[in-house]
Design a protein that fits this description.
This protein has 8 helices and no strands. It is mainly alpha-helical. The protein has a domain at about 45-185. The protein is globular.
Length: about 200
């Protein structure tokens, strides 16, 4: 979300001082990327809880369904733009539309499709990126829903309460799925009675 807020801000058209916080936003973005890389390297896929074939099939199918939902959600707006009759929401902020659609269709959808197909094929290594994709959906759903309800409360002409409600249900469903996936991780505790391999090497 950070690139959208930094790159999509109307610095010369609207009053404000977003540019004064560029270094803060940049630092947060760099720090978050460092956390992502370090967390990814630290996770051993063989240590993750084993999934049943049924669970892999369900999760894979759900990811493909959500990817299709995102594509279908953007398709009417894209057709209208290409046809020369864009919506009022697009006209109000085309930069935001292209940024969000570019990242959703260029990053989120391919990641969901790759994980979904891999899970359906029974690829165990796909479980690791699936945690990241499911977590993203669980977080972005409530965020978009909150934005939608805030727009409706403030009488924004582009507000869509039904759309906000859909994303609220969407976020709740993925929050439940994320809790189900992450719950076994919190139950696992290391066996401190056995020395680690590196500790044994140091002793020797």
């Amino acid at each position: 979300m950070m690139p959208q807020y930094v790159l999509g801000a109307h610095y010369t058209e609207l009053p404000g001082n977003n540019e004064d916080f560029f270094l803060l936003h940049l630092g947060l973005f760099v720090l978050s990327m460092m956390v992502v890389v370090m967390a990814w390297v630290a996770v051993d896929v063989t240590a993750l809880p084993r999934s049943t074939r049924r669970s892999l099939t369900f999760t894979g199918t759900l990811l493909l369904a959500i990817a299709a939902f995102l594509v279908i959600r953007y398709l009417p707006a894209l057709v209208e733009i290409w046809d020369g009759s864009p919506t009022d929401e697009y006209v109000a902020d085309p930069i935001a539309f292209w940024l969000i659609s570019f990242m959703d269709l260029g990053l989120v959808v391919p990641a969901a499709v790759a994980c979904g197909v891999s899970l359906l094929l029974g690829v165990e290594e796909a479980r690791k990126p699936t945690y990241a994709v499911i977590s993203w959906f669980a977080l972005v759903g409530p965020a978009v829903a909150a934005m939608g309800f805030a727009m409706a409360i403030n009488d924004d002409p582009n507000a869509s309460p039904p759309g906000a409600a859909v994303f609220a249900v969407f976020g709740a469903a993925f929050a439940i799925l994320a809790a189900y996936m992450f719950r076994p991780l919190f139950r696992q505790t290391p066996d401190m009675s056995q020395p680690r391999a590196e500790d044994s090497a140091c002793i020797r």
